[in-house]
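Before a colleague's protein record goes any further, I have to sign it off. My question to you is simply how this chain folds and whether the tokens agree. I do not need a full report, just your reasoning and any doubts. This is what I was given:
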Amino acid sequence: MTTRRTRPAPRPPEGTPPRAELARQARAVLADAVRIAHWAAGTPGPGTTAPLAAHALERAATALELSPAQVRAGWDRARLAGLVELHGDTARPGWRLRAWDRDDSAVLRGWVALFDAWSLVHAAPEGIEAGAVAEAVEAVPQVLSLLQLSAGPVTVPALLDLLGQRVAELHEERCEVPLDPGRTAPAASAAPAGTAATAGPARSADLNALLLDWALEGLAAVGALTLGKGHATLTPLGNWAVWVKLEQICVAAQSPAGNIEQSAADMLLGCARLTPGPARDEYRAWLAARTVGSAVAELLAVARGEDALLRGLAFEALRVVGAPAEPEVRAVLAEPSLRPYALLWLAEYEGNDPDDAQDVLSREEATWLWVDTAAAVADHGETGLLVRHLDSAVQGTVPALLDEVRAVGHPRTVQVLVALAAAHPDPALAKAVRRAAFQVHTGGA
């Protein structure tokens, strides 16, 4: 008998509330969004475009006793948190809404999706160049890290100094050389009065201050921090989320002996960090303890769930089942979220080389699968893996990929693009991805 040593999961900072309490706080932050999502789920044609159609906005405001502005804000949050999904012209309840009252993990993931999209929740000040806004978004993780490491209030001047340093580093990384002393920026004298994006040291400091205020207000709007007089403090939710991102927590592998008696979902999570050979051994042991019919049904039920990582792993386990699973796999071809996985499974079952199996997918199906896989990486993987996932897209170029991702209608598109923009080291590419996320979020072209 051998034992397998695993790295223990990192513990959150001392004083971090239990997950149940963090989930309670997340539910409180998203309370209006949940109410609007439930209203939309129970109302015929509640608002099939984003933002809500005017007549639907009025009906929702009356029914929920909220102002139209509150309804619009709640609707946006509901979409970003995965509480509602738009399928063509139809709004449907998202998987997180169905799990909201019973699944703390779903709640926390929904809130983290909102946290990642803070710059979409809180519009940037008018009159500021898009590049300056993108730089501020790119610098915010360093600001959050300082807040998290300080474990208490941090003064706005200290945060402003850090933001300015990070923006200067971004300029240096791009080899943007400032103007020679004595030279005047040609656009400075022509800029309209009150425009923030003018050149010069004094205006640059003012611009950074304006952008920092916007970022802090945006993060406060999603419940990540609180603002006091001249200082900011992470909330327990914000502190936990930043710690999770800093530690890059992934699903920890369970003890092999414990997987056989687990549910399909827990078994798959326990195998998520194993290499293919040991994982297949775990699948075989789990399958051997069950009838084929019940095992296949349970794996397909997990594949229909909210977690894209489990969807892919469920079909990996079904590969171990082989021929007995073929009728059930073929039967799910009509389900859009499972069709790409089922087509690949059937292609390999019928003898195609795994490297050539992708040829059975249409362009749209391959794009859907790319987004679904990216969602799994965003939820469970490391930043670098999400960036490298770009290379697997069939489109060949990022602009073509973004065009087709916008059109494919995957319910996680916005969250995936926001996560990719936050992770990618190329500022220009990150800006293009962030713009695509905004266009999907707002329903623009």
In short: Strands lie at 84-87, 90-93, 154-155, 225-228, 231-234. Residues 1-8, 45-51, 177-203, 248-257 have pLDDT under 50 and may be disordered. The first strand starts at residue 84 and ends at 87. The first helix runs from residue 19 to 29.
